[in-house]
Write a structure and sequence with these properties.
8-stranded parallel beta sheet, disordered N terminus, two-stranded antiparallel ribbon, 16 helices
Length: 418
Amino acid sequence: MPQLQASQEHPEAPDGGRQYGKFQNEIYSNGVMNNLMPTVTTNPNKLEEQAKLHLGVTSYNYVSGGAGERATMDANRLAFRQWKIIPRMLRDTTHRDLTVEIFGEKHESPVFFAPVGVQTIFHRDREVGVAEIAAEIGVPYIMSSAASSTIEEVAKANGSGRRWYQLYWPHDEEITVSLLRRAKSNGFKVLVVTLDTWALAWRPADLDNAYVPFAKGVGNQVGFSDPVFRRKFKEKHKKEIEDDIMAASVDWEADVFSGKAHTWDQIEHLKKNWDGPIVLKGIQHVEDAQKAVEVGVQGIIVSNHGGRQMDGATGSFEVLPEIAEAVGDKITVLFDSGIRTGADIIKALCLGAKGVLIGRPFVYGLGIAGKQGARHVVKGILADLDQSMGLCGIRTIADCNPSMVRKVRYGGDLKSSL
C-alpha cells in the first residue's frame, strides 16, 4: 500500500475549484495520524446493512423497501452491472473539472440530493440538517413535498445553497398555486414534478407493519403549513389543523395521493404559475420523453422512483440511452434510480444524463449519523467520481461519452448495492 505523504495530496485544480477527491486523503490521514476511522462505511455494499443497525424496523423498511418483490430495485442495479467502463491511458487527467451547466447555472458537480420525504423518521436532523450540509458541500438540494419540515425551514437551513422543489401534485389548483408561490419566494429555482406517485404502490415492507407515516401527520408539514390548505381545512371542519391532526392528514393525503391521475394537458397550469424551469420526474418511455418536449417543459428525470412504485418495471438505466438519444438535444435529461458509486455516475453521464440524483445512500448515512452521516456518504460518492474519472481517462464531465462504455452481459453480474 502506498505511504501517505504530503506530496501525494490531491493536486489543486488550476481554477481553484472544489476538489472532491481530497476526501480520500482526509480519511486516510484521520486514520493514520489520529486513529479515527469513518463512522459511516465507505463500502456501498455495506451501507444499507449498517443503517439497519441504527434505524427502527418501520423506518428501515420504509427506505429500503420497494414495490412488490423488489424486482424493479434489482433491475436498477443489474442495468448498471451490464455496462462497463473502458479506461483510457496516458491522458492528462491530473486536474479534473466536475462542473456542469444546467438550466443556465454552473454547478460544482453533476450530483443532486434526490427528493426524499419524511426524513424525521430516519434522524431528528431531518430535511433541515441535510439541506444545511448540502449547501456546505456544494450539492443542490431537491426538497420533497412529503417533507417533515416546511418550505420556509428548508430554505433557511440551505441558505445560499442551490435548491429545487419537488411537487407531489395536488388536484386542488388553488393549493398547487400556493405551494409554487411559497417555493419560488423562498429561493427554489427549479420545479420537479413527480408523475409516478399519485397513489402509493403495493409495498409489502410497509404493509406488513401497516405503516404509513402520513396517516399520523408525519411528512405532511408542507401541507399543514400552507395558508390555503389551512384556510380550507378550517372552513370545512370549523377547527384548526392542530386540533385534529388525523382529519387534517386525511384531507391532505386525499388531495396529494388521491388515486386520481393527472394528464398531459394539465402541465399547462403549472407552466402558467411557475416562471422557472419545470422538470418531469418518472419518465421511462421514449414516447413520454417526446411528449415532455412537446408540452414545453425544460427537463425530465429518467426514474422509476427507485423501484418503489411499479414492480416488474425496467431498470431506469436500461432506458436512459434511448431516451437521451431521442430527446437529449431538445431537453435536459437527468437520471435517478440506482446510483450508488462514482462509476455509476460516469456510466450515466456517458449515456446521456446531464446530472444524477442520489437517494437511498444519503438517507442511510442520515440514519447512521445524522446530517454528518449524509454529508459523509455524498462526499464519498463525489470523491469516488472524481478519482474514477481520473483513473479512466476522463478530465471533464463533457468528456463523458458513449465511447467510454460498453454493454457486456456477464452471467455473474446479478445485483449489487440495492
